[in-house]
Amino acid sequence: MPEKKILTKNCGKIDPGDVSTYEAEGGFKALEKTLRISPEEVIAEVKASGLRGRGGAGFPCGAKWELARKSKGDEKVLICNADEGEVGTFKDRYLLQHDPFSLMEGMAIAGYAIGAGKGYIYLRSEYHYLLEGLQKAIDQSKEKGYLKDLEIEIREGAGAYICGEESALMNSIEGKRGESRFRPPFPPESGLFEKPTIINNVETLVNVPHIIQNGSEWYGAMGTDESKGTKLFCVSGDVARPGVYEMELGCDLKELVMDLAGAKEIKMIQVGGSTGGIIPSDMLSTPLAYETILGSGAVMVFDQTRDVVDFTYRTMEFLNEESCGKCTPCREGTEVMVGVLGRLVNGEGVDGDMEVLEELSDTMKLSALCGLGQTAPVPVLDTLKYFRKDYENRISQSVFLRSLKTVNG
Amino acid sequence: MGDVKLIIDGTEVSGPSGMTILEAANETDINIPTLCHRPDLKPEGNCRICVVEVEGSPRLVASCHTPITEGMVINTCTPKALAARKTVVELLIAGHTGPCVTDECAKDCELHYLAAELEVGPPRFQVKARRSYPMETLSPYVQRDMGRCILCRRCVRACTEIAKKNVFSMAYRGFHSKVVVDCDVPLDKEECRDCGICIDYCPTSALTKPNKGVS
Amino acid sequence: MERDQLLGMIKEEQAKNGSVSDGAMAHIAQTLHLPIGNVYGVTTFYSFLSTRPLGRHVIHICKSVPCFLQNGAMMAAAIEKELGISPGETTSDGRFSFELTNCIGACDQAPAMLVDDEVYGDLTPEKIGEILKSFE
Fold first, then answer.
1. A180 burial level (CB within 10 Å; 0-12, 13-18, 19+)
2. Which PANTHER family match (chain A) (predicted)?
C-alpha cells in the first residue's frame, strides 16, 4: 500500500504564508458547503464518517461534537490541541508548518457545528517558531472572511508534556498549574472556564474539511471497520528515511517502516509515543489501527543493537519527569519504577524487581487520575511480556556480580 | 430519598443526582477509606485511596468525586480495589521520611491507621531519595515538617476554603511537588494566625503546633 | 486582568529579563490579585520557565528516545565540551545556559536542539560548534 496523501496533499505545494495559494487548491470550499447546511447536518456527516481523535485517545469526533452542541450554555469553546508532546510525534508540526490553512478551515467548520464563538490553539512552547506563521494564517483567513463567527486565539504552553492531556491543557489556559482534573464533568459538558468545550487535535481538525467536501461515504471507504480515513505516521529511530508518512488506516506496520522508511534488522517498534505499546520483530505485520495499535501515530524503530531495559528506563524517566504530581499512583509510582529500572540498567537488580514493576503497573493502570498515569505502565508491561528474558538476564547478572564481590570482599 | 437508584455492595441505595459514590455509601453505613478527602472540603481526587469497582468500567473510580448514576453497580471491597488501595498507601509511606513510624505522632497518623487497616506488610517499594526538607519553626502558630507531608493538599484547601487565607500553594511538578508558602520560604506569614485549621486537617504530623514539638 | 493571563505574563517576564525573579512574581501576583504562591506554583510547574537567572541564550538539547537513538547523548557531551558547563549551568560570561529537555518534536531531524526558540536538527559535534559561534 503506497502513501495516500489527503491531509498532506497541500504540503509542499502551497505557500503556507499565502492564503490565496490554499484557495487555489480548493481551500475553504468545504467551509462554504458547511455554511449552506445546518450544524446538525455537519455533525451527522462527521459522525457517519467514523472520524476518531488523532491525538491518541481515539474518541469518536462526531459524538463528542454532538455532546457539546446539545450541552446547555450560550458560550461554547473550541480548542485545538497543538501541544504535541508525545515522544516521537511531529505530524502536527508538519501540518502547521506546511498547511496551516487546513487547520483554520477545520476549526471554522468545527466552531460552526458545535456553536462556538471562541477558539483557542494551544501551542507547545517547543514550537514557538511556528507561532508567527500560525498567527499569519489566522489573520489572512480572517481578512478573507472565513473566520467571521470564530475568534481564534493562540495560547502557548511553557514546557509540560501533561498539558497535551485535555484537562491539564484547560487548566494551563486558565492560568493554573497544568494538572489533570478528575472527570466527570467531561469537557463537552463543562470544560474551559466551565463552559462546554471541544478539544480536538490538529490532525483531527484537518480531516474535517475533507469529510465535508467529499462526504462521509467517500471517507468511510478508507480504513478498517473501526478506523476510518488516513493517518499521519511519524517514523523515527533506526530508519534510513525518518519523517511523516500518510497512510490509510489499517496499513501494514512492516511496509511502513521497512519499505517506506528503510528500517533493517528490527528488534522492536514502539507505536504511539512514550506510553505506546511495543511490537516485537516477529509481529511486524500488525495493521496500524485503533483496534490494534495506533496512539498518536508515532512509530519509533529500534534495531537489534538496542537494549530493551535501557529503553524502558529512559521512557519511564520521561514519564516521571512529566508527571504532573497530583495523584499518588503516577507521582510516586513512576518514581519507584525509575528507581527499579535504573538499578537494572546499572547492574544492581534484585530478585523481585519484575514483580514490583508488575504490581505498580496494575495499580497505576487501574487507579491513576488521568491518561498519563493510566498508560505509563504500558511500555513496562509490553517489554516484560515480549522481552522478559532481557530483564531476567539483567537480574541474574546483577546477582552474580554481587556474589563475586562478596566472595572477594 | 433521591431519584438516582444504584447498588453498593449488594444493597440498593438511592440519592439525589450530583451525590458522590462516597456520600451514597456513607448514607448506608458502608465505609470507604479516604485520605485526601474531607466532607467539608472540595473533592480533589488526588490520593486515590477511595477507589471502588464500578461494573462496566475498565478502571477503578475514585468515590470521593464520582457522581452516582442510575443503575450503577458498585463494589467497594473487591480484590482489585483493595490491592490498589494497599499499593497507594505503601507508595505514600515509601516516599516520605521515616521517623514518624516510631515517634509519638504515629498514633495520630491517618496514613499509619490506613496501613494497619489494609494490612500493609513489610515495605516493597523504595524511592531513590525520600523527600527531605528542613523543619520550619519560624511561625509561632504552625510548625511544618514537610518530610512528613503526603501531598493530600488538605491544608491548602482548608486554609483557602475554611480559613479564607490562601497561605499555602502547590509548587514544582511530579515527585518534587510541594506545598509551599510564597516563593517556597519557611512559613512566617502575617496572615497566618493561630486558627490552627491546617493543623487539624493534616493527616500526618507534617503540620503541628510548635509547643507540641516533634523530636 | 484575569487569571488566564498569568502564564502569558510569566512568559513575557522571562522573555524580557531572562528569568522570573521573586520580585517579578510578587508584581504579577499583585496585578492579578493572586497569592504569590500561586504565581510561584505556576512558574515552577513548567520546565521552560526559570526562577534562576539564565544566560542570554538558552540551549535545550533533546534527550528523549528518538534523539538518544541518534547519538543525542554525544551532542550533549559536545556542548559540555564546547562551553565547559554541565546541563543546568550557565557560562561565566552569561552567554549560554544549557539544559536537557524532553522531546521537542523534531525526531525526523534527530539529534536536535533548540537554541532560544529556533530548532536545529541533524546535529553533529562540528555543526554544534558552528551554530554556537553564531550567537553573541
1. buried
2. NADH-QUINONE OXIDOREDUCTASE SUBUNIT F (PTHR43578)
